[in-house]
């Protein structure tokens, strides 16, 4: 694609980077490469830099652009809403706000068998904050939560308290209400001599042991009360490396939670909207959450909108009255019109069928690459949420340095396809920052998946040569 460098207002990359270095806070972003990459255009599964070089994007803005860059149907929905009702204060009502809430609530009723309501905000972390208020309110003010090692729920103060990485809290005071972090079953790095399912069961038993006696720390058997209000879960860990637990894990965990009256909050911010082949990733595991938090792909990255669904007992107006939380831009009409169109489109295009098929093709390609490159220690995935763990030649020891080289080479745009230059956009995750977390467009073609495998092969080969 040709980028018009003579267009009015065009500023070249060098000047933009100089201005960024002088005028922008570095605290609101993370630059994974030096210098940071500047992109000018996006279309489908590709982004284009100033030179017009295409970059196949296999992370799609951290799974926010599930339906591809420049998706015509969604772009048209946005343009239509701009001409009808682009803005309205959130104290007033408008049609798509009500329609979207109803659509999500009826979908949950069909799947979970529960009445519930939908509550909106503008970003994933903000929706997590709202859910914390909801949980505290429902538990008479209990402010302690369970969460997982390797879990990530955002970087606001409340979300940081339930995110396991200390580095997000380190400079911001003492977090007296920090969550208790429990082991998440990580099949590739499980203890020797255990099957994945046995490891999963052991993690559940380790959690349940906290309730054996009052001296195990969280349970008062005399009153039948737990000190902790809820367990925040990512059904598949996102920033933690797209770790997929054994399929029996959440059923075992939910039995313990139900036994002791602890709420389950499913964080679907990264895995929602058909990333795993289901609207909500928790659906794959056969359990019913009490609260579902969502964001990102709800609007395909075109407008900030997030929210949560909660069962009626937790969120009805008597127990959670008007003003319990509020944001000026929540339920904004541009966002709700897009969200409504996303859900309609997802069911009409049957992502529940197409995503697992594409995911199987992608996973098969990764397994073929694994045979060729000993440094790929593990591949796994569900739908189009996939992982490749980059290791040393032993196939197990984490190799962050090699993956860093791969990311740099991919963003240099010097790979080749049909005699032309092409780049590759990857995302890095994992407990050891050695995992490629794949979140391609749900509309990625089989041909583009094959291209991705070819480019990954080139990338690994170049990176290993140094």
From TrEMBL:
<dbReference type="InterPro" id="IPR049704">
    <property type="entry name" value="Aminotrans_3_PPA_site"/>
</dbReference>
<dbReference type="InterPro" id="IPR050103">
    <property type="entry name" value="Class-III_PLP-dep_AT"/>
</dbReference>
<keyword id="KW-0663">Pyridoxal phosphate</keyword>
<protein>
    <submittedName>
        <fullName>Aminotransferase class III-fold pyridoxal phosphate-dependent enzyme</fullName>
    </submittedName>
</protein>
<dbReference type="GO" id="GO:0008483">
    <property type="term" value="F:transaminase activity"/>
</dbReference>
<keyword id="KW-0032">Aminotransferase</keyword>
<comment type="similarity">
    <text>Belongs to the class-III pyridoxal-phosphate-dependent aminotransferase family.</text>
</comment>
<dbReference type="InterPro" id="IPR015424">
    <property type="entry name" value="PyrdxlP-dep_Trfase"/>
</dbReference>
<dbReference type="InterPro" id="IPR015421">
    <property type="entry name" value="PyrdxlP-dep_Trfase_major"/>
</dbReference>
<keyword id="KW-0808">Transferase</keyword>
<dbReference type="InterPro" id="IPR015422">
    <property type="entry name" value="PyrdxlP-dep_Trfase_small"/>
</dbReference>
<dbReference type="Pfam" id="PF00202">
    <property type="entry name" value="Aminotran_3"/>
</dbReference>
<dbReference type="InterPro" id="IPR005814">
    <property type="entry name" value="Aminotrans_3"/>
</dbReference>
